[in-house]
Every structure is written in structure tokens, then in C-alpha cells.
Amino acid sequence: MIVVGKAADALPLPFEVLDDGSETRAAIVGVAAALRHAPSDTCVVLPTDMPYVTARLLQVLARAADAVEAAVPQSGPLPAAFKRTCLPVLERRIAAGKLALRDAVAELDHRVVHASPDELRNVNRPADLEP
């Protein structure tokens, strides 16, 4: 497991955060950084604001990416699994200022997997944790 973010944020976390190497705040930057830092050819990417994602879904995404470059849920683009072969597309889009990860996924050979809407709940404030 690796965590990618902004080292300049200096968040008081009990684990190392690898710097994404950019001042730009966009999911595509984090995914590209994860692919550069990862010791494996496939990265399963989970945003910090999705605490209901299950290990089962992460495994499904990883398996689905075996035959393609990326796997995303029906609501995409995250959580997802990306192969390192996606990196040139992501880096080209970042350099061009095209930061929508959803649009980048559309350029990739990808598979859509079904995930429960409950698993994909986005949590941005404490009230979002309530059922």
C-alpha cells in the first residue's frame, strides 16, 4: 500500500505520504503519481473520501484490469484499477491541462464493473457518515 498526496500539506498522519510531484490538485495527478511510485504494474486506487468501499470491490477491480488497461465502477472514475501502461495517456493529458480523469479513462482500453451505490458513497463531512 502506498499513499500519494501533497508533501507540502504536511498532514499529521501516522504513515508516509509520497509526494505527487505537482502543485495541481486533481485526481489524475494522484493516479499518475501512484503508477510512478508503485512496485507493481497494476494499481488499485482508492480516494480517501470513500470509506465504504469493500475489499471485495477492490479485488474485483484488480481482476477486471487484468485483461484491459483500467477497470472502473459504473459511476467511475474512482475507485479504479490502472495498469502502468496508462501512464503516457495520463501524463499527456496532465501536460495539456486536461485534468478530467473520466475523460482519460475514456481514452483507455477499460472495463466497467458493477459496484453497490452504498460502497461508492462519497464522504466530505461528518454528516455524510450518517445512514
The 3D shape can be described as globular
**How much strand content do the residues show?**
15-25%
CATH superfamily: Spore Coat Polysaccharide Biosynthesis Protein SpsA, Chain A
- Biggest sheet record: 4 strands, mixed
Number of domains: 1
Q: Return residue spans where pLDDT drops below 50 for at least 5 consecutive residues.
A: none
- Total of helices: 4
Which structural class do the helices and strands define?
Answer: alpha/beta
CATH architecture descriptor text: Alpha-Beta Complex
Q: Quick one: how many beta strands?
A: 6
Distance from N terminus to C terminus (CA atoms, Å) equals: 29 Å
Residues in helix, %: 25-40%
Query: What's the multimeric state?
Result: single chain
> Which CATH class?
Alpha Beta
The pLDDT mean sits at: 95
Radius of gyration: 14 Å
Biggest sheet strand line-up: 3-5-4-6
Report the order of strands and helices: EEHEHEEHHE
Output the CATH topology.
Answer: Spore Coat Polysaccharide Biosynthesis Protein SpsA, Chain A
Structure overview:
By secondary structure, this protein is of the alpha/beta class. The protein is 28% helix and 15% strand. Helix 1 packs across helix 3. The protein contains 4 helices and 6 strands, in the order E-E-H-E-H-E-E-H-H-E. It has a 4-stranded mixed beta sheet, sandwiched between helices. It has a two-stranded parallel ribbon with strand order 1-2. The model has no long low-confidence stretch (mean pLDDT 95). It has one domain (4-129): Spore Coat Polysaccharide Biosynthesis Protein SpsA, Chain A. It has helices at residues 27-37, 55-64, 87-95, 101-107, and strands spanning 4-5, 18-19, 42-45, 70-73, 80-83, 110-113.
